[in-house]
UniProtKB/TrEMBL annotation:
It comes from Labrys wisconsinensis. The keyword Transcription regulation does not apply. This is Cytochrome c556. Residues 1-20 form the signal peptide. Keywords: Electron transport, Heme, Iron, Metal-binding, Signal, Transport. The lineage of its organism: Bacteria, Pseudomonadati, Pseudomonadota, Alphaproteobacteria, Hyphomicrobiales. It holds the Pfam family Cytochrom_C_2.
């Protein structure tokens, strides 16, 4: 639990740990997004009480991903390390970057929420963007 808390703080403040390469970096960022999504889902469903500071912390994880992910797909990172990056990323770099720009905008809206209802609505929009990007730019495993 302490490791997750430390990692969340680092991600929230925009810090990243340098891993072995861009694939590992983007996988680490997406693991942080997955953890934030799990927490946010509880808030959106009303299972966890809304907390404005927590909403901002969650939004910061998405904003960090939106800012950094488009830069982590150099041509030499198309394969390896169990990447699920689809070839479409390199075929449509502008579209890929635009998806992350939209995610950043959606994350800012999430940060501005003031109660469970507004959080749930903003989170639904944000996760819809996640699904759109994953549907186009990610290879499904299994």
């Amino acid at each position: 639990m302490r490791r997750f808390a430390a990692a969340a703080v680092l991600v929230a403040f925009g810090a990243t740990v340098a891993f072995a390469g861009p694939i590992e970096d983007r996988q680490a960022i997406m693991k942080g997004v997955a953890a934030a999504t799990k927490t946010a889902t509880g808030i959106a469903k009303g299972e966890t009480p809304f907390d404005a500071a927590k909403a901002k912390e969650i939004a910061a994880v998405y904003e960090n991903a939106a800012a950094k992910m488009p830069t982590l797909f150099p041509d030499d990172s198309k394969t390896g390390n169990d990447t699920t990056a689809a070839p479409k990323i390199w075929e449509d770099k502008a579209g890929f970057a635009a998806e992350f720009a939209k995610l950043g905008t959606d994350a800012k809206a999430l940060a501005a929420t003031t109660d469970t209802a507004s959080f749930a609505a903003a989170f639904k929009t944000l996760t819809g963007e996640c699904g759109t990007c994953h549907g186009t730019y990610r290879i499904k495993k299994g």
